[in-house]
């Protein structure tokens, strides 16, 4: 069912809210990786 | 310096015939240049060079040619010429040679030529390397008349003219104070147009004069034919349709700007002067508002604001309502609109754009057409658009009302250029209304508002004092407060010297 | 840095909290006592917003995203901080969906919803590229306008005899149970919990003195206006209709029938456009500021565009039916997302503040 692929679809949210929470968390973790890399680069530049 | 100039070939040689040839070479194929030979009593010869029509002939004869020919010895002239060249007072020279108003000497040929082109008379003498410039310029010019673009019922009838000097005088006569500064700037590599920045030193917005000067000095352009060139070259957002610089033909309006802490830019050869910074609310204020009864002026202002909004959205609302939201129209009105639209083959959007475009065309033609034809065309146009088109069933009668109302409404702006902006923006609004209905209209208005909020004129927010809100500034926006209560200058430009009158000026009956 | 005035922040906050609730109805689960529920929510909401402000001040003016790395360190704090921009983007996407569904249903019957979503987002991006200053100034201009039109609307409706205050009786007839249910968590979280985004906006306010007063004032103004609208909607429509209508306020506008105002839809559109515009701008701006801080960068502009496009994508893939969309807002999001993020996380931060101070004290 391609129509219910995304966890933020209302039907998915109604059926399984944890999927949305999981997506948020995974997204946050992925984002953090970017942040950590960028901050590392920045601190290197300062040194 | 003398010899250096000669070596460069930029100065005179001192031999009369060679120098004359130099001028004639430069002014080759300029048939308006006249060369007048004169001989001093000592037998020494010289030439007067001037442009016919730019010099006051009678004064030239009386104040230059006659004294020169009466001059007794060559020592007199060369001696005084020398003093002037060595930095002596020019008055010394005028005392002996002429009574001409302004005298100066130049070493460089190029500067002499510039002076010549601006109307000065040049005198050269055998054995002398200096160029004597006598300012006797005079040319035909329009007298001070009532401004055609901003007529009033109550108020001064004089308007700016094409002459820079006259314009400065018109301002100076209204502000008789040494505080009024008139700074001169020249722009244009070919036109060498004189411009003047006029402001009150103690009132002007801090930093404004420098900013204006900086922006004007940035300009490198060959000619400046009108102040519109300058307006477009110094404004903050060059991509905006709204006038960020106010232009006016009225001296009283310019002076009121100066008194509020603004800078007025006078440009030679145009009656339109620029007032910076220009704000949106000013384009809805007529100078007459301040001369008439304030209650009436307030009513007029509300009327103007309403009509301004009408000029912008009235046709769009007609389109949106008839196309998308018929249910919003009261039933009886809907019936009459539907009846009038019955025979019309076009959708409302096409119908309205057709009519608006032909109205704009009619108006444009009305300006361009030769006077005698204009009358005929406007009658034909009115008949064609007003009557025949409706009877032929091409447009509906309701739309004719809408279009003519809009047409009148777009004329209410005291500043003509703001009216132009609204006339332009009407068309995108109509397209939005035709595609997205009322939602489109609100979206369009929102975009316009965002644009206006972003806009600044010389650092002052364009919509101030409405956005950002300054409660004190609102005394002169929608409502025109009586003069005795407008004790302060507008905050955004008059910060340097806020107070403009003593408190408690309200007239009261004497206590008996 | 651009700065906004306290009045502009006040207007922004009030309009943000009015939001689309003005159209959708607030605490409608409490039936005819919705206005009581709204009032109670407002009081608690004001407290909640003041707690956010307290944390903001206690951290020395750090914005929302900076709280977590500051308190929990790099490794735990960063992922927690990342949750917020993602949620804000989701919230913005919900507003786009609201707009996409409301217009075709109410006034534009034949227009495809994606055109409406696109154009609306385009306008928001255009405004946001001018910075928070533009949004704040617009809010300062819109606020009086909205209140004038609310007053106009109420007067018109009242003069047409739409209100029947008997509909409100009996007050608290079915007990406090359903009132509390409406207050917690939806009433508190919707709008008031979302105001956590102002922990970012506050850092742009030039004069921070008296911020608490303006903030509380804005919240109370918005909250009590919502309560008033609920009161009027119930008295106009009756309890049953109020609960079943998707947009009670819109329905209310359609009730008026005074001479030449067959209905006041136009006012409804103004409410919706203005409030949705302000709310979405604040969502997207907050998301952009968070992203800029987390990814690193000088300007918010690319982040604004990124966040907007993400929100558009989420919105376009979000909704299958509008009833489900509303159901999510009422049953899922408040419990599963808003409570943990708007209440639990800031609560932990609040508790951790003295601990951190204590640790910092030990080190020195």
UniProtKB/TrEMBL annotation, chain B:
<keyword id="KW-0472">Membrane</keyword>
<comment type="similarity">
    <text>Belongs to the GerABKA family.</text>
</comment>
<feature type="transmembrane region" description="Helical">
    <location>
        <begin position="302"/>
        <end position="321"/>
    </location>
</feature>
<dbReference type="InterPro" id="IPR050768">
    <property type="entry name" value="UPF0353/GerABKA_families"/>
</dbReference>
<dbReference type="InterPro" id="IPR004995">
    <property type="entry name" value="Spore_Ger"/>
</dbReference>
<dbReference type="Pfam" id="PF03323">
    <property type="entry name" value="GerA"/>
</dbReference>
<keyword id="KW-0812">Transmembrane</keyword>
<feature type="region of interest" description="Disordered">
    <location>
        <begin position="71"/>
        <end position="101"/>
    </location>
</feature>
<keyword id="KW-1133">Transmembrane helix</keyword>
<feature type="transmembrane region" description="Helical">
    <location>
        <begin position="429"/>
        <end position="453"/>
    </location>
</feature>
<protein>
    <submittedName>
        <fullName>Spore germination protein</fullName>
    </submittedName>
</protein>
<feature type="transmembrane region" description="Helical">
    <location>
        <begin position="396"/>
        <end position="417"/>
    </location>
</feature>
Automatic annotation (TrEMBL), chain C:
<feature type="transmembrane region" description="Helical">
    <location>
        <begin position="141"/>
        <end position="163"/>
    </location>
</feature>
<feature type="transmembrane region" description="Helical">
    <location>
        <begin position="111"/>
        <end position="129"/>
    </location>
</feature>
<keyword id="KW-0813">Transport</keyword>
<keyword id="KW-0812">Transmembrane</keyword>
<feature type="transmembrane region" description="Helical">
    <location>
        <begin position="212"/>
        <end position="237"/>
    </location>
</feature>
<protein>
    <submittedName>
        <fullName>Spore germination protein KB</fullName>
    </submittedName>
</protein>
<feature type="transmembrane region" description="Helical">
    <location>
        <begin position="67"/>
        <end position="91"/>
    </location>
</feature>
<feature type="transmembrane region" description="Helical">
    <location>
        <begin position="269"/>
        <end position="291"/>
    </location>
</feature>
<feature type="transmembrane region" description="Helical">
    <location>
        <begin position="35"/>
        <end position="55"/>
    </location>
</feature>
<comment type="similarity">
    <text>Belongs to the amino acid-polyamine-organocation (APC) superfamily. Spore germination protein (SGP) (TC 2.A.3.9) family.</text>
</comment>
<keyword id="KW-0472">Membrane</keyword>
<dbReference type="Pfam" id="PF03845">
    <property type="entry name" value="Spore_permease"/>
</dbReference>
<dbReference type="InterPro" id="IPR004761">
    <property type="entry name" value="Spore_GerAB"/>
</dbReference>
<feature type="transmembrane region" description="Helical">
    <location>
        <begin position="335"/>
        <end position="355"/>
    </location>
</feature>
<keyword id="KW-0309">Germination</keyword>
<feature type="transmembrane region" description="Helical">
    <location>
        <begin position="303"/>
        <end position="323"/>
    </location>
</feature>
<keyword id="KW-1133">Transmembrane helix</keyword>
């Amino acid at each position: 069912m391609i129509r219910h692929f995304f966890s933020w679809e209302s039907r998915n949210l109604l059926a399984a809210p944890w999927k949305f929470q999981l997506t948020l968390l995974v997204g946050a973790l992925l984002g953090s990786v970017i942040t950590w890399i960028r901050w590392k680069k920045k601190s290197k530049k300062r040194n | 310096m003398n010899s250096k100039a000669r070596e460069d070939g930029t100065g005179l040689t001192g031999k009369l015939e060679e120098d004359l040839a130099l001028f004639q070479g430069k002014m080759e194929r300029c048939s308006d240049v006249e060369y007048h030979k004169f001989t001093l009593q000592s037998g020494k010869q010289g030439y007067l060079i001037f442009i016919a029509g730019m010099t006051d002939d009678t004064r030239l004869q009386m104040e230059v040619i006659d004294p020169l020919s009466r001059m007794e010895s060559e020592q007199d002239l060369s001696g005084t010429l020398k003093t002037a060249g060595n930095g002596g007072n020019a008055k010394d020279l005028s005392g002996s040679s002429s009574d001409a108003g302004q005298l100066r000497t130049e070493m460089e040929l190029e500067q002499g030529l510039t002076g010549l082109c601006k109307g000065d008379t040049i005198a050269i003498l055998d054995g002398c390397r200096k160029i004597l410039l006598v300012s006797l310029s005079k040319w035909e010019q329009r007298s001070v008349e009532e401004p055609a673009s901003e007529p009033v019922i109550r108020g001064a009838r004089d308007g700016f003219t094409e002459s820079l000097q006259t314009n400065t005088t018109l301002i100076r006569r209204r502000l008789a104070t040494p505080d009024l500064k008139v700074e001169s700037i020249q722009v244009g590599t070919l036109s060498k147009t004189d411009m003047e920045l006029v402001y009150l030193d103690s009132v002007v917005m801090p930093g404004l004069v420098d900013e204006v000067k900086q922006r004007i000095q940035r300009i490198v352009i060959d000619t400046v034919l009108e102040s519109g060139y300058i307006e477009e070259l110094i404004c903050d957002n060059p991509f905006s349709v709204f006038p960020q610089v106010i232009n006016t033909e009225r001296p009283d309006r310019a002076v009121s700007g100066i008194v509020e802490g603004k800078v007025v830019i006078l440009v030679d050869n145009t009656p339109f002067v620029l007032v910076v910074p220009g704000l949106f609310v000013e384009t809805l204020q007529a100078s007459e508002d301040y001369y008439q009864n304030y209650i009436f002026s307030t009513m007029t202002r509300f009327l103007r604001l309403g009509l301004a909004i009408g000029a912008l959205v009235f046709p769009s609302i007609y389109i949106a309502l008839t196309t998308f939201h018929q249910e919003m129209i009261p039933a009886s009105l809907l019936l009459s609109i539907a009846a009038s639209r019955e025979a019309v083959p076009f959708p409302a959007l096409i119908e309205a754009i057709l009519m608006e475009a032909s109205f704009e065309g009619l108006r444009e033609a009305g300006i361009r057409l030769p006077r005698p034809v204009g009358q005929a065309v406007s009658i034909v146009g009115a008949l064609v658009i007003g009557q025949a088109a409706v009877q032929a069933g091409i447009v509906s009668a309701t739309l004719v009302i809408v279009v003519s109302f809009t047409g009148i409404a777009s004329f209410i702006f005291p500043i003509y250029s703001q009216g132009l902006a609204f006339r332009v923006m009407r068309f995108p609004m109509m397209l939005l209304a035709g595609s997205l209905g009322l939602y489109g209209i609100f979206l369009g208005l929102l975009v316009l508002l965002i644009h206006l909020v972003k806009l600044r004129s010389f650092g002052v927010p364009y919509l101030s004092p409405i956005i950002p809100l300054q409660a004190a500034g609102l005394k002169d926006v929608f409502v025109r407060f009586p003069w005795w209560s407008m004790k302060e200058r507008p905050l955004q430009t008059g910060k340097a010297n806020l107070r403009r009158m003593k408190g408690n000026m309200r007239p009261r009956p004497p206590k008996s | 840095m651009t700065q906004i005035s306290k009045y502009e922040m006040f207007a922004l906050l009030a309009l943000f909290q009015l939001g689309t609730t003005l159209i959708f109805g607030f605490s409608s689960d409490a039936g005819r006592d919705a206005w009581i529920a709204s009032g109670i929510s407002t009081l608690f909401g004001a407290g909640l917003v003041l707690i956010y402000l307290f944390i903001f001040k206690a951290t020395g003016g750090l914005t929302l995203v900076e709280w977590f790395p500051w308190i929990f360190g790099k490794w735990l704090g960063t992922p927690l901080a990342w949750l917020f921009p993602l949620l804000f983007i989701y919230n913005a996407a919900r507003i786009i969906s609201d707009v996409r569904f409301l217009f075709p249903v109410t006034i534009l019957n034949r227009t495809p919803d994606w055109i409406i979503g696109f154009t609306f987002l385009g306008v928001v991006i255009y405004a946001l590229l001018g910075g928070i200053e533009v949004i704040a100034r617009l809010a300062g201009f819109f606020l009086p306008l909205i209140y004038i039109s609310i007053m106009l609307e109420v007067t018109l409706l009242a003069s047409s005899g739409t209100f029947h205050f008997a509909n409100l009786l009996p007050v608290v007839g079915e007990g406090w149970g359903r009132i509390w249910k409406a207050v917690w968590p939806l009433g508190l979280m919707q709008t008031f919990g979302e105001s956590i985004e102002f922990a970012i906006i506050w850092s742009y306010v030039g004069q921070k003195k008296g911020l608490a007063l303006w903030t509380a004032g804005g919240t109370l103004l918005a909250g009590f206006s919502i309560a008033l609208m609920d009161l009027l909607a119930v008295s106009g429509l009756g309890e049953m209709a109020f609960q079943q209508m998707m947009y009670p306020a819109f329905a209310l506008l359609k009730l008026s029938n005074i001479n030449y105002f067959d209905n006041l839809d136009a006012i409804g559109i103004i409410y919706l456009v203005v409030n949705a515009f302000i709310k979405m701008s604040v969502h997207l701006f907050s998301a952009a500021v968070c992203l800029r801080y987390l990814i690193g960068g000088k300007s918010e502009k690319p982040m604004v565009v990124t966040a907007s496009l993400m929100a558009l994508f989420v919105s376009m893939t979000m909704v299958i039916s509008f009833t489900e969309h509303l159901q999510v807002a009422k049953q899922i999001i408040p419990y599963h997302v808003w409570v943990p993020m708007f209440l639990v996380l800031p609560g932990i931060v609040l508790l951790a503040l003295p601990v951190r101070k204590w640790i910092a004290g030990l080190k020195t």
